[in-house]
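Record Amino acid adenylation domain-containing protein, 982 aa.
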Amino acid sequence: MESASIFSKLKDAACADTVGAMRKRAGWNSHAFACRLDAAVDEGNVAAALGVLDERFSCAGWPRSVAQLHVTPVGSPSTSEVALRQRMREMSRPLSRGTGQVLRATLLRYGDGHRDFILVGDRDVLDQDALQRIVQYCFSRDDAPPPIEQRQALGPTADEIHAFVSSDVSPALEWDGRGARQAGQGKLEMVTGMQVAPEHWLAALGLVLSCFHGKPAPAVAILQEAPSQGSGIELGVTGFRLANPMSAGSTSVSCALDHARAQLSGAMRYTESLLGTLIGKHQFALDVSVGMIFPLDVSPDVEGILDIEYLPCSSAIFPVTLIAGRQGSGHLTCHFDEALYSTPSMQWLLRCLVHVCSQLKEEGAARLVDVELLPQTARGEVVALGRSEPRHVPGDDDRIETAFARVSAQQPDAIAISYGDDVLTYAELDHRSSLLAGALAARGVKPGFFVGICLNRSAAVVIAMLAIVKCGAIYVPMDPAYPHDRLQYTAGDAGLTLTITEDGTFPDVPGMVVTTVPELEREADPARVWRAAGAAAGDAAYMIYTSGSTGRPKGVLVPHRNVIALIDATREGLELSPRDTWTLFHSSAFDFSVWEIWGCLLTGGQLVVVPHWVSRDPELFRELIARKSVSVLNQTPSAFYQLIEVDQRVPVSDSLRLVIFGGEPLDARALLPWFDSHAESRCRLVNMFGITETTVHVTWQDVRRREALAGSRSVGTPIPGWHLYVMDDQQRLLPPCVPGEVYVGGAGVALRYHEREDLTQTRFMPDPFQEGIMYRTGDRGCMLANGVLEHLGRLDNQIKLRGFRIELDEIRRVLLGHDAVGAAAVLFNQPNQADPASGRIDAYVVADDASEAGIRAHLARLLPEHMVPSTLTFVRTMPLTTNGKLDTKRLPPPKSPAPVAVASVTDNAAQPLSALEQVMCTIWQGVLGREIGADENFFDLGGNSLLAVRISSAMRKQGLPALSMRYLYTHQTIRKLVAALA
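=>
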């Protein structure tokens, strides 16, 4: 389901078509009175009065429309359902506009002798006051009819049009109201018990719509009925008016009410001429979504009328049409388009509107930010939707090493880790990690110390992690593939004094000692088995660095109790047990590995370590899954899409029972080929949304074929102990079906950012709904009425690309760090929305005295490979909007590297292409969608692992040998690759 505006933008539509579409909306033209008549009323007198009025209409230039009083017998009693339906049907029945009919009178005679007089008028000719005066004349004894007067229709001035078009008002309500996408009209009614002035309703509507809209409130069409100042019946255009219900500058309740009063008194008329001007001349995308009618109060004070009812409209004139009574019980009616909005969505809209209006009316809140959107009872309902109670509350001693010790004691001889042909049992892992902990303690490692780990995936990584936490210290994982400058920054920012590496080398960091696992094992005293004293579950277990918008990666401190709570929350629901075999597929610097390692070892499973090159080669990975009988697989969607392509040729092992997605948004549609080959009952697919700051996971959602067919964005409900809130930019809790920012509370919230107090305060804040801390994610989401969260992307410049969390602002700051770059912009693009492999990072720079190669070298020195932009485009200046912001629409298309056909800057430039090189060039061109030279670098051309899999598949179809990812990563041009394969 698309999260964009559910109302079509009319910017390119012709004015006539636009007006015609608005005119065709049910209920646009007519309004009606229904009067219960006294038994003494003479029908002949009523018919005669109508005839006199018909003559007057004709003299005023209007076609004859009321030649007689239409009498309709209804055999049922006036209180029956049949009678009530007939009454409403007659009030709602459209006028015959083709014949120029502007008025219709009908008398309903019921079986019990009662009668209803129904008068329907054309709103373009008769407003409520005029229609009501006609009713009064029909039942008065006055022989002289009221005069018929023509109202002068005044259009907007040029200044009014300019002011409206240049204002910040949005033309359409961008809110997915969960409609059935099928035609239908819904209606809701509420008795508010308040006497409310129109300005209170309008200001309240502006505030509510701005929250639902996620930006300044959209334009609202208002119709404020008013009594005529003259004695006659005024005919003429009485259309809706456009209003901006909430000024962007309003900060206080009094200012908001003043603005609403001004809008009600001076709003522009919503007429055909205005539509034509705005759309035709100013190219204004006008599709008003919400209308509000303020009718006059009516009472049966006419002789001969026992009761009277006024129907301002019979259905939704606009997608949402509100009718607000001014006095008495404060009756509020809502007509809505069921194709766009569900009844629950509209119920929440009305509840919010009434609650906000009551606060504005009483002026209980002086500032708009203090106005609550939901009443207390409703807040409780919404909080309960996003709350999942924990299955187990970790105790003070529930730490990673103590939980592991319990598992090890229960199954000491079970295999804990396998790496190639080597295996470690639980007892061996426990023993070796204890020895290493003793060696670390002998080097001065104490509780609360940070110890770096910069190791490739292996058993040594897990041994080192377990040893560090046994010391009561905090492990800081780093990826050896990261640039030296980034490793150096991480170690320096964390204040590391000791780092464990593969070979004892690491970029220089003052005061830091580098060692290896073998060296520590040689130092270990077998007689000393270390256990830290006084360590608690609330102590930090690890610190993982994530991309930072300021250009500085930030360390996230996560305590032991969070990891234990995560395992306890998911063990039963995912049926995790010692029978499972997991893979360690991801780098230890990626928080998905926290789940892979401890999710496996703390439930007694076997952890299969996947070598880096195997993780990059889906064919080899499929073979490993089969060879090791893997049952639990954790994958980013991008990695699994590669596995699906391989699975089409050789199916993945039947041992696989559970696939868990995480790390990036899932496009469920891409799973359809998997469901074509695998029964849902054989292998369960679970999508889990989460972030480093909330301990890997927050929600879970089983993904089945029906979700894939629907392209579902659902990420499910919170796992036990985790809580979800969706709030607006003022941290007001939003009702279901309204998008906002996602906040996470409960058992998974991390401790803080390391030495980033300012950032910690803005992201980790007190939970207003329970004791504890909640985390502000920066993700946009929508809580549905069943408690399921839909993930709608990011609110900032953070993206997730092939599982990596990337701050585009960090890349921009690195670009600006180059001496020759004066300005820079970084964007994420996915040209083919149906193909995740097309996702890429595009960079733009203003740099007069720099080469692309020089800037790329600068980027590669400071950024991991996955953060280096695929394209780099030079521009003279950065295009700006009138507000001084980057105008991305005016940036040129990203510049691709110039293709190298036969010639090349290499020494082999003069060599002709061999037959195999020509075939390879054709294959690369087909996959990458551009001309390719034999000496062009695959990754500089925008290549990635997903596209590499497709190249390998295309090679197989040509009868060529399978392409190993190792070959492609070490031989990145066609010429080098062909030479290696030969």
